[in-house]
Write a structure and sequence with these properties.
The chain is α/β, with parallel strands linked by helices. It has seven helices and twelve strands. It has a domain at 29-168 and 191-207 and 221-231: Aldolase class I (TIM Barrel, Alpha-Beta Barrel). The protein has helices at 3-12, 21-27, 52-57, 65-77, 99-108, 150-158, 205-213, and strands at 30-31, 34-36, 81-82, 85-87, 115-119, 137-142, 163-167, 170-172, 193-195, 198-200, 224-226, 258-260. The strands form three sheets. The chain has an eight-stranded mixed β-sheet, covered by helices on one side.
Length: 264
């Protein structure tokens, strides 16, 4: 019996909500979701991309299959079961050099419950036909200035249960300073992410926050762990100095303006 099968009955009985997610992530062996940041290239260079600082820190990055297998090794060694992994970026995940091979590795691992992809939809034709059998869902970000894509329409008809759309019209501007009144933080994305050899306790906003603060993100040891056994069971209170600079802190949003999506 593999690790995934051992958790099957337990998972069926777990009901979670957004308010429970932090407790799940740091106090349970069942992990709700982890972002896998698989590559940094993207077809676009959006002016208002929240991942711009993240992509700058990992230029021309492609997660190797060795890195992926190491992540899965420590996940199994920690006795974790991840209900869903999300192939997320920080660029466009379907440009990942090891896309089809990597998805098959995840599917076969026994410690992953489902595979989710967030994509701009431009390169979905890089997903091989048999690979769609391993993917649970794909969310396509639909920007108002993106041209219609006939292949997306074809996939939506073929896999209506897997292909979903999110229509995005507005973005919020980036923070420009420290907002001391934003703590305690209301995090919009308290989901850990794995990139290269590190597990960050929250999402890509910490890279922009570190850039705004003028520090090296790798010197901010409170927001990440080296990949190791029990990588999500360290101390984490979710309210750091970096949170006061972060675009994913909802308490900062009231200070900022919104504007339409723009390509550079």
């Amino acid at each position: 019996m593999n690790n995934g099968q051992k958790f099957t009955n337990k998972i069926k009985q777990i009901k979670t909500s957004k308010d429970d997610i932090v407790e799940y992530l740091f106090n349970s062996r069942v992990i709700d979701r982890i972002f896998l940041e698989v590559c940094s290239p993207c077809q676009y260079n959006c002016k208002n991309c929240y991942h711009s600082s993240f992509r700058a820190a990992y230029k021309n990055y492609h997660m190797t299959t060795h890195e992926l297998n190491k992540f899965l090794y420590y996940t199994e060694k920690s006795n974790y079961y991840i209900r869903e992994v999300c192939l997320h970026g920080p660029g466009e995940p379907t440009l990942w050099r090891y896309l089809n091979e990597g998805i098959k590795i995840l599917y076969d691992s026994g410690v992953i419950g489902g595979i989710y992809i967030i994509s701009n939809g431009v390169s979905l034709d890089r997903i091989e036909e048999e690979t769609f059998d391993y993917i649970d869902r794909i969310r396509i970000s639909m920007y108002p200035d993106v041209k219609n894509n006939n292949y997306i329409e074809y996939l939506h008809k073929k896999f209506p249960e897997k292909i979903k759309f999110e229509y995005i019209k507005k973005f919020t501007e980036f923070p420009i300073k420290k907002y001391s009144d934003s703590i305690p933080c209301r995090c919009l994305c308290p989901i850990p992410m794995f990139v290269k050899d590190k597990i960050f306790y929250c999402n890509a906003g910490v890279f922009g926050a570190a850039a705004l603060k003028g520090v090296n993100i790798l010197d901010c040891y409170e927001v990440y762990s080296e990949l190791k056994e029990n990588y999500l069971h360290g101390e984490n209170n979710g309210n750091y100095d970096l949170c006061q600079y972060c675009c994913f802190n909802n308490n900062i949003e009231r200070h900022l303006k919104s504007y339409c999506h723009q390509f550079n």
